Amino acid sequence: MSFTVKDIAASLGAEAFGDVSISITGVAEPAMAGASDLALAMKPAFAKGLPEGQAQAAMLWAGADWQALGLKAAIVAPRPRFAMAGLSAMMDAGQGYAAGVHPSAIVDASAKLGADVTVGPLAVIAAGAVIGDGSVIGPQCFIGMDATLGQGCFLREGVKIGARVTIGDRFIAQPGATVGGDGFSFVTPEESNVEKVRDSLGEAGEAKAQSYARIHSLGSVSVGNDVEMGANACIDCGTVRDTRIGNGVKIDNLAQIGHNVEVGNDTLICAQVGIAGSTRIGHNVVLGGQTGVSDNIFIGDHVITGGATKVLANVPAGRVMLGYPAMKMESHVEAYKGLRRLPRLFRDVAALKKAVLNADGND
Amino acid sequence: MSFTVKDIAASLGAEAFGDVSISITGVAEPAMAGASDLALAMKPAFAKGLPEGQAQAAMLWAGADWQALGLKAAIVAPRPRFAMAGLSAMMDAGQGYAAGVHPSAIVDASAKLGADVTVGPLAVIAAGAVIGDGSVIGPQCFIGMDATLGQGCFLREGVKIGARVTIGDRFIAQPGATVGGDGFSFVTPEESNVEKVRDSLGEAGEAKAQSYARIHSLGSVSVGNDVEMGANACIDCGTVRDTRIGNGVKIDNLAQIGHNVEVGNDTLICAQVGIAGSTRIGHNVVLGGQTGVSDNIFIGDHVITGGATKVLANVPAGRVMLGYPAMKMESHVEAYKGLRRLPRLFRDVAALKKAVLNADGND
Amino acid sequence: MSFTVKDIAASLGAEAFGDVSISITGVAEPAMAGASDLALAMKPAFAKGLPEGQAQAAMLWAGADWQALGLKAAIVAPRPRFAMAGLSAMMDAGQGYAAGVHPSAIVDASAKLGADVTVGPLAVIAAGAVIGDGSVIGPQCFIGMDATLGQGCFLREGVKIGARVTIGDRFIAQPGATVGGDGFSFVTPEESNVEKVRDSLGEAGEAKAQSYARIHSLGSVSVGNDVEMGANACIDCGTVRDTRIGNGVKIDNLAQIGHNVEVGNDTLICAQVGIAGSTRIGHNVVLGGQTGVSDNIFIGDHVITGGATKVLANVPAGRVMLGYPAMKMESHVEAYKGLRRLPRLFRDVAALKKAVLNADGND
Question: How far separated are the first and last CA of chain C, in Å rounded?
Answer without folding.
Answer: 74
